[in-house]
Every structure is written in C-alpha cells, then in structure tokens.
TrEMBL record:
HAMAP family, per database record: QueF_type1 (MF_00818)
Record: residues binding substrate: 80-82, 99-100
Catalysis: reaction(s): 7-aminomethyl-7-carbaguanine + 2 NADP(+) = 7-cyano-7-carbaguanine + 2 NADPH + 3 H(+)
Subcellular location: Cytoplasm
The keyword Cytoplasm belongs to this UniProt entry's keyword annotation: yes
Protein name: NADPH-dependent 7-cyano-7-deazaguanine reductase
Species: Sulfurimonas autotrophica (strain ATCC BAA-671 / DSM 16294 / JCM 11897 / OK10)
Entry annotation: catalytic residues: 58 (thioimide intermediate), 65 (proton donor)
Amino acid sequence: MDEKEYKAKRAKEVAQLGAGETEYKYEYAPELLEIFENVHPEMDYWVTLNADEFTSLCPKTNQPDFGTIIINYIPDVKMVESKSLKLYLFSFINSGEFHEDVVNKIGKDLVALMQPKYLEVIGLFYPRGNISIHPTFSYAKDEEKYKEIEKYRFLNRNLNPQRVE
C-alpha cells in the first residue's frame, strides 16, 4: 500500500479526527473510542499517552478529582486514535467513581477496543485529605514475553518515575 492509499484508508477509519465540530459528552461514553490499523504489527514498540488534566467526580462528595492518566501499550493490529481518546477521557468529567474504578474501567475499555499485546493504565490522582492515590491496571496477551513484561512492571512499578514530562 503506498502512502496515498494509506492516508485514504486511515481517514476512513477515524471519524472524530478532522471533523468540523467537536461534540463533548459529559457522561461516561466508551462509544467515542476509535481505532486505526497499526502499520507495524510485526514490531514490538511502546506507545505512551499522557492525559494531564483528567477530571472525574468523587462518588461520595460529588467534588471534582483531578489527576494524570498515563496509558502505556504495545500495539498489535489496532491502535487507539488520540482525539477519540481525549473525548472519551473527558466523558468522565461528571462520572462519580473511585480512582481505582476509573483506572480499571479505562483499562478494560482499551483492551476490548484494541486487543493490544500489552497495556497499562496508571492514574496519578492529586491528593485529597493529604493522600494521593495511584492505581495501576495492566493486561498482557497470553504470549510469555508479554506476561513477563506485566510481571516485571507490576513488581517494579515504583522504580521508575511515573510521570513523563
């Protein structure tokens, strides 16, 4: 497939990107997520996506919770389109859920969408009551090398900085 054919194919795969007007959803909306084909599925490489202004609501107090969501994954055949991810993450703005639930929901939605080789979602929520919460979701395909990555990352989660600046 030449470059022109690739661009035409990719344009058909994603509807949000390049759309004239953006419609924001104010309630959890996983249907906003879009994918496109990975043109390098034979390779293992990392994709890191940082959402530094993530907001949801505390389910008990209804007060806003702020944080950073970090998504690291090794794509297989499908990849998440970044604008659709931004709109999806924004849809949590009025969603009353605990931090751990938010991170697990995002992780499960992305696994169902992409079926990546490996995926982790890290939530770095700002302190409330002097305690910050940093839940992590991880998923690995059944292939041994991805299970090893998952095990290593789980056991050594706090060895590396979790914030990419």
